[in-house]
Structures are given as C-alpha cells and as structure tokens.
Amino acid sequence: MSLSPDQIERLARLARIALGPGEEVAVVGRLNRVLGLIDQMRAVDTTGIEPMSHPVDVVQRQRPDCVTETDQHELFQAAAPAVEAGLYLVPRVLE
Amino acid sequence: MSWEIVVGIETHAQLRTQSKIFSGAATAFGAAPNSQACAVDIALPGVLPVLNRAAVEHAVRFGLTIGATLSRRSVFARKNYFYPDLPKGYQISQYELPIVQGGSLTIHANGASKTIRVTRAHLEEDAGKSLHEDFHGMSGIDLNRAGTALLEIVTEPDLRGAKEAVAYARALHALVTWIEICDGNMQEGSFRCDANVSVRRAADQPLGTRCEIKNLNSFRFMERAIEYEAQRQIGLLEGGGTVIQETRLYDPERDETRPMRTKEDAQDYRYFPDPDLLPLVLSESEIESIRATLPELPEARRARFIAAYRLSEYDAAALTASKATADYFERTVAGIGGKQGAAQEHAKLATNWVTVDLAAKLNSDDLAIELSPVAPERLAKLLSRILDQTLSNKMAKEVFDAMWAGEGEPDAIIDRKGLRQISDAAAIEKLVDEVLAANARQVEDYRAGKQKAFNSLVGQVMKATGGRANPAQVNELLRRKLG
User: Fold this and answer.
1) pLDDT over 60 (residue B265)
2) What residues of chain A lie within 8 A of the CB of B32, using their CB?
3) Minimum mean pLDDT range among A31-35, B261-265, B283-287
4) Are B102 and B63 in contact (CB under 8 A)?
C-alpha cells in the first residue's frame, strides 16, 4: 500500500499541516516507508489472537466525582493573544 | 402513493456529575465564562485526563435500565477535528468498543406500544461554546462546557414518523431523569437530540438516503422539523430528484431545515484509541452494586399502578410521566391511611386531585411537582376530610386554594373558614322538614312529576346551611320524605 499525492494533500489539510512545494514528495516517501512496515506486520498470521487496544496491561483508574480545580482563567488567559469579558477571542467562525 | 418516514435518534444526555468527565473542574450551569475550565479542559501541554467514576456509574445505570449488554472492557478513542471550541483538536469519545451495546426502550404512540432498539450508548466529553456576537470581527470562546460528561444514545432506524420519534424522545427523557443520570433541562442543553430522517415507498424497500437534523432543542421543534424534512425529501423524490446525504439545521423561526455549510472531508474523524486513557474495565461486582441502587422503573411502576390501584392506562401514564409525580401520588395515597381495603377508593381520589387540581395549579404557576407548595402529606390530610365527609368536593377546593396560598394545615383552614360540612342526620332532617313545610307548592309540583321542583328544594336546604349541608344526605332525606 502506498499513498498518492492527492491523499497526502487531503491528509495534510485534515491535520492542518502546510506542505511547501517539493516537501510533498519527501513526505510521501517517509509515509510510504511507514506503510511498508505496516504491510510487513500484516503479513504475520494473527489467527486466534485478540486485537490489542493498549500496549500496557493495566486498566483505567477512576477518580471520585469531586470538584478539585479552582478558577484560574486570568492566569491561563495571560498567555492568550486576545481576550474579552472572560472569553478567548479567535478569528470569526460561523457554521 | 404513500411514503414511510423512517427516523433514528441520537441523543446527547449530559450526565449529572459535580465535576467533568476527565478533570476536577466544576460543571455548574451559568458560571462566568472560562471560570470552570481548568488546565485539562483547555488542553495545556503536559496534562492528562483522569476518568470520573460517577460518569461510568451513570452509563452503567442506563445500560442496566434498557437491558443492554455492558462491555466488560470498553475503550476511549479520539475523534479528530478542528474547531475553536475544541482545544485539544480532538474529542475523547468511544468508537469501536462503547460501554453500552444494544438494549431497548418501550414507547407508547398512536394508541400502541412499540419496542425501539438502542444500537449503543457511549461516554464522551462535550465541547465548549462559540459565541458569534461581534467581538470586533472575532468570535468569543467559553470553555466552561468543554469536558462535561455526556452519554450519547443512538437508536436503530426503528421509528416511523414524527409522532413516534417524539414519543421516543419523551420516553428517553423520562427515563434518564427517572434514574437520575441527567437533569433533563432542555433549555440549558442537558438533553439534545439529532434526528436521522429518510423516506421510502414501502416497508420492504431498502432504507432511503438519510439527512441528519441537528439543533432540536424541544419536543415541539423535533416534531415540526421531522415533518418538514420528510415532506422535503418526498417532494424531491416525487419530482424525480434524489436526496443528498447531509447534515441540516432546523430553523424554528422559518419552520424549515436547511443544509449546514460543511467543509469537505468534515466527516473524516480519523478515530483511534486514545493513548492517554487505558481500557475501562467493569467488574461483575461493580455492575451488581449499581443494579442494587436502581429504582422501580417507569414501565414497572405503571403496570403496578394499574394492578394495585385499578387505575386506567391513561391515569397510570399521567402519574408515571416523571418519578417525582409517581412519588407524589404514592405519598398522597399512603398519607390518607384510614380503613383497610380502601386503597382503591383512596387512589381514585388521589389520582383526580394530582392529575387535575394539583396539575392545574402547577401549570398556572409554572412549577415542577417537586416544588409544589402543598406537600403530598398535606394533600392527603385534605383528602381524608373529603372521605370522612367533613368536606364536600367544592369545599375541599376552597381549602386547597388556601393551602396553596400558604395558609397552613387543612384542619386549621377548615376551622378558620367555618367550612365544616353538616353531616349530622338529625340537624339535616330538621332543616328538611322546615323547608318542606314552607314550600308546599314545590312539594306538590314534585309529586306531579316535576324534577325541577326537587332541585329547588335541595337548593333551599343548601341555602339554609350556607352551602355546608352534605348534598348526598340532603338528597337522600328529601327523596325519602317525598317518596
């Protein structure tokens, strides 16, 4: 399996990664090497083996339902480029 | 030629938790912007999610209630998309292994019962809110809601038409509030539905192309939106066109749906298991301990009301519309107490008062039953005074109005207003004799077959007592004396 330039362009758009001219070819090459590795793994016979969702054999810890955080929005918003009335301001978005 | 309208519903029920699903920030509604958004919620680098046990317990409660399969092992996944109110660039959700699989809900619509299959229900986090008022050409982002625990409940396309869809949404709403996993407040967005709508010529045809309608924040809008959308699709197909699969928004002001402007590739969420979260494992003992805390469920309670109190289907449905209503009714019946074996008579009286008199007051004051100024124990005392003949129904309504206005216990009100009904047979007989002696003409008229004359005599006796004579006794005595 290998990726076409069209697929690379689409993936880059979904991931919001800007690829400059010429970069595309290099990225295709690198990703296709990864896909080659996946093809190699796919060739292994996995009949009867349960699919693994996580490499560590432990389970999710759960916390009690308690409010432990305090209001720190002023501190957090000190790093934001634009803030007004407690809101983060971003370039206009409309559906 | 007729069309079949096929609907499936996806509901986002906000789970009743104090803190968020993956952080210790508060979830209270209406807080100042971003005051409840902590480092995890705004996705500062280096933070990790830790799962809230209460969210898991609520999901299990729901799964047990609808007879679903609970996944002993479920997995959280990342749903990737970019939007300013989603700071991480992905929403933590469940994809391949949701916590609740299958199960069903019974609805009552168009005079019949129907079982609606639930496909799945999964845990996920909510996004923040984008405010599009003009902030100098920018949008404002409030992340207080980001990270709030949601249960997304998805049905099979089992619903036929807008009425059934609304009946399902109402039944689900009643259920999630009944088992106390969701506050059900639709104005605040705690219970949000999307409808997948398609049409086909006949039930044995394959499903048509569907459109998903978002923004259905009331049952009334849901019904209108589905009706509009189905007619739109039928119009397209009958005109030789085709339906395009898309997401549409309902606009209540224009009463129409229109396509959401979606960017291409928007549906490609590239789900994958979230490496920050380990598999969620449920043990048998956890599941059993949650099962032990489940209340009697609406369907069971409705059936018991019909069997134990001989209520009609209609009354049983009205009294089990919410757990608070059912509890109020049963506390009223229990409060009446008194003679054994009279439960059905008491239940009938309590039913009338709860579904008519109390409901009217609650409705006019726009109050939920749990906030009724008249507690069920007090209503029970009032009803006891009807049953022991102290009050006529008419007098009881007067006392009830006074109780509603905060004037205290029914007995005190009865004494203060002098509302005691006269049921003393000797006293009534004396009055009846006086009235008969003074109204010889009416007596003659009645004996000549004029029913009107009888009513006039009853009226005279009632008038002589200021309306306090027991009307049944007056009637009976008059008939006996005139007979």
Assistant:
1) no
2) 71, 86
3) B261-265
4) no
User: Tokens 């300013």 identify what position?
Assistant: B84
- Residue A27 tokens read as 């990225």
Q: Is A80 on the interface with B (CB under 8 A)?
A: no
Cβ proximity of B248 and B21 under 8 Å: no
Beta strands in B21-63 (DSSP E): 51-52
Interface contact B53-A67, CB threshold 8 A: no
Model confidence pLDDT, tens digit, residues B423-458: 777 888 888 888 888 888 888 888 888 888 888 888
Give the number of other Cβ atoms within 10 Å of residue B200's Cβ: 17
Count Cβ atoms below 10 Å from residue B345 Cβ, excluding itself: 15
Q: Which residues of A touch B23 (CB under 8 A)?
A: 69
DSSP B440: H
Query: How many angstroms separate the CA of residue B121 from the nearest CA in chain A?
Result: 19
User: Phi and psi (nearest 5°) for B378?
Assistant: -75, -40
The structure tokens 């298991």 sit at: B273
The CB density around residue B464, as the number of other CB atoms within 10 Å, is 15
Structure tokens at A13: 């758009």
Q: Quick one: how many helices (H) and strands (E) in chain B?
A: 16, 19
Asked if A88 lies within 8 A of B141 by C-beta distance, the reply is: yes
Q: Is A42 on the interface with B (CB under 8 A)?
A: no
Q: How crowded is the C-beta side of B432, counted as CA atoms within 13 Å?
A: 23
Buried b / exposed e across B137-172, counting CB within 10 Å, b at 16+? ebbbbbbbbbbbbbbbbbbebbbbbbebbbbbbbbb
Cβ separation of A92 and B142 shorter than 8 Å?
Answer: no
Contact B431, B464 (CB under 8 A): yes
Average of per-residue pLDDT across B378-385: 94
pTM of the prediction? 0.83
